[in-house]
Amino acid sequence: MKQSPSGAVFETKDVKKAEYLQSILSRLNDEVGTYFKLLEKYHELSAREVGFWSTLRMLMPIVEAVANVVGEKPQDFLGNHLDVKTPYLVWDLFRHSLIHGDLLQHAKYGIKEVDWGVGLNGLPHIIQNNHIGIDSKYIYLKLKEYLESQVQTNDQSIVNIEVGVIYNNPKQEIIEDFSKL
User: Fold this and answer.
1) Cβ atoms < 10 Å from Cβ of 115
2) Under a CB-based contact definition with an 8 Å cutoff, are residues 70 and 78 in contact?
3) Number of continuous H segments (helices) and E segments (strands) in the chain
4) Is the dihedral of CA 12, 18, 20, 24 positive or negative?
């Protein structure tokens, strides 16, 4: 479970599930969909392909948000809805490497070592021979498909989402930052 900053709690708001998922879908189409279109145009003109890490950096927080709304762990969401066969390992390797760092990390357990890579082809993930190859465009397409199906159900149940941070007992640095505003 996500932890609030030190000295703070998350502020939350009740919203209708279908409306919130529709807003996520709209942002996914506008932000990530547009980015994939721009990457495709760039790749047509350049011999050097880019966007591998950045696409996952955009997608993993969205995966986490959707998982929270539908009551699943992000890892389970990856496995249940985005066709990731090693969801817990993928979450640790990809999300933590790319959100909290800037270096491809590997994983070891016993004598087995696993490396990973990112594709942009919209093809299913490749998980074999001690390698995990996640296709971020495939995640985008599967996530879009999932959200569209959930929005169509028009689920009017109420979900509680984070909308802010309330500092009750902040660190001195936070107090100083607020004084600058």
Assistant:
1) 14
2) no
3) 8, 6
4) positive
Please say whether the beta carbons of 62 and 95 come within 8 A. no
The Cα angle at residue 140 between residues 100 and 90, in degrees rounded to 5: 45
Contact call for residues 24 and 62 (beta carbons, < 8 A) = yes
Global confidence as pTM: 0.90
CA–CA dist 11, 9 (Å, integer): 6
Tokens 């990973």 belong to 116
Element (H, E) at 97: helix 96-99
Per residue in 79-119, pLDDT (tens digit) is 999 999 999 999 988 777 777 777 777 889 999 999 988 99
**50: Cβ–Cβ under 8 A, 6 or more apart, which residues?**
39, 42
